[in-house]
């Protein structure tokens, strides 16, 4: 027995082998399964489905056949990748919510937009649609190449003739290896118009094509917002197209608003969408929805959302657009196979590829028709010769002993070809009638005209293009319909948090220690009578803390904060955490990016960054500055510089002013200066300001106020002595002067530590160095003159001293600080727990 030769081992690096094997697998998936061909727009499985159904004779006017039989034929002949994958592909071709122009007519349960699965293939039936037949038209006229099937037992087309621009009108989706395609469907009429525009002018630009193709046209309708994504997709082959559901808003008989959704974005599962909305309502991420119903039927989609009374439909819709697929983006990635290689295509590339494919199909069809016409002409010429010499033909046939001899004699006598002689022998005697003879002559004339037309068509390529144009227009006329997806030219802007929150009146409360919160004003009861005490406090404040800011503002209003270092910050009221009436709130430093060495010195509510209002600031060194409120619009929570201070100066106070008011500047050594605000010109944010009051080296500013003839000043020194004094006690002076005496100060222990604006119904709170809090009713104090010594307001003993004074703002007081366009209705709190720090 001969020895077997030993094999030779070839060492191969594993990374090279893996790379080669993976590339082979990847290319197989890319070319043979996942990506459509740019010519007919079909993946192999879809091409095989249409071809096999056509081969079975399942035309649109023929009876349906079981899907299982169709799938079995495709599986056995062309697509050995599993029956379920074939059936799934066939089902999608029949779904009118997946395909803009379905190519399979299904009978039975073929699934729904709710994501319901189709019935098993043994229950459903299918046939081709009339439009699908246009994809197969002329396939038997040698218009496309055929290739062996997977087992070489038969042949299948490598591409369909595709008279319909399928890739553009029905789109495509597919995930290959390392790449994917996602093309939107379009309106047939628009695509055909673009094809005709290209045929008329091969140099047409994409922008000119976009005058015909407005944008994608989804089978489920919806509304496309903006054209920038469409334009980018058509120019580059990639783009993001935002699509929103179509809705209407009406009112129920009970007076509630309801949102009715009739169309949803493409490829969105309606059942999952409704579940998502229900989850948002259950988790209270969307508030204001009382009922959610799916009333869809065979007449169309109808999702009904019932809202609470007083709830803004716009706010609810913005929530739903943000958190659900009522708004989604269609991410275009126009990837297709061009010469069996994946390539990203723009709009013109796809139109050019379609026209080029149709040119080739029509040329091949024309050559086939020409060959058949010439063959028929050849036969008809022979028949005509025989009819012209019928007696001689009959004689030759009768005298011939066999058929081959008769054929040979005919060929020699009349110089006929073998085909012509055989046609004469096969001619029936009925052809000898005069009527039949006339028909042959007429047919010969028609055939010769057809031959001339076909030869002329092949000789002039521009006529083939015109034929493509005519055929495409005929298809658009037959199968085209109106656009379903509306295109709105307004771009969708990023939804602001403000758009997600109902416009609501809030009570904003801030304490001296910096705790802030907001409470809905409807938590309070408005009293129709006077003298109601109400609840003294509803904030669980820490010891020695008091409410010093309370105002009413809308959730969409702003609150400006100015710090001791001259930085400005702002929050929207809606950004302040909502809290219960008994909670302490959130510290303002948790909401703003305030450094550890600066404190909030002023808080001002307002409706908008107006150019008619100003922020008037005063520093400890007597500098003043006026900035247009609009110039601080970029402050936000990070803060921006509102005033530049030098030599350790600190911002002492800030107020919103109209630009035409009078102001009081009060120093620690008891000087008061009344100035006209117009003497301070508005300046830029980074400027230092101007001299407001001329101070001694040992003096500094204690505070500033807006002059209000309906109110008085309360001036307090460190020993607890103070007095109430009218603004009219002070005459206006020029800016930068020393002012006049308002409080006697003999030494540093008697320096002014606070000045506030008060009226009879106010209460003030004195805070001492040792943390004591004393509250005093203003109505017990009578006004005094500028030279008066004042009263002993707080009974304290050294070394304790008063360090601050402020109005005690109860929650039944809406405040009186001026705020541009800010409403300040009076409210009374409902009965609630009293403050633990009530003095």
From TrEMBL:
PANTHER family: DNA GYRASE SUBUNIT A, CHLOROPLASTIC_MITOCHONDRIAL, DNA GYRASE/TOPOISOMERASE SUBUNIT A. Keywords: ATP-binding, Cytoplasm, DNA-binding, Isomerase, Nucleotide-binding, Topoisomerase. GO terms for biological process: DNA topological change; DNA-templated DNA replication. SUPFAM superfamilies: GyrA/ParC C-terminal domain-like, Type II DNA topoisomerase. Few gyrases are as efficient as E.coli at forming negative supercoils. Not all organisms have 2 type II topoisomerases; in organisms with a single type II topoisomerase this enzyme also has to decatenate newly replicated chromosomes. One of its GO terms (molecular function) is DNA negative supercoiling activity. A type II topoisomerase that negatively supercoils closed circular double-stranded (ds) DNA in an ATP-dependent manner to modulate DNA topology and maintain chromosomes in an underwound state. Negative supercoiling favors strand separation, and DNA replication, transcription, recombination and repair, all of which involve strand separation. Also able to catalyze the interconversion of other topological isomers of dsDNA rings, including catenanes and knotted rings. Type II topoisomerases break and join 2 DNA strands simultaneously in an ATP-dependent manner. This is DNA gyrase subunit A. It comes from Spirochaeta africana (strain ATCC 700263 / DSM 8902 / Z-7692).
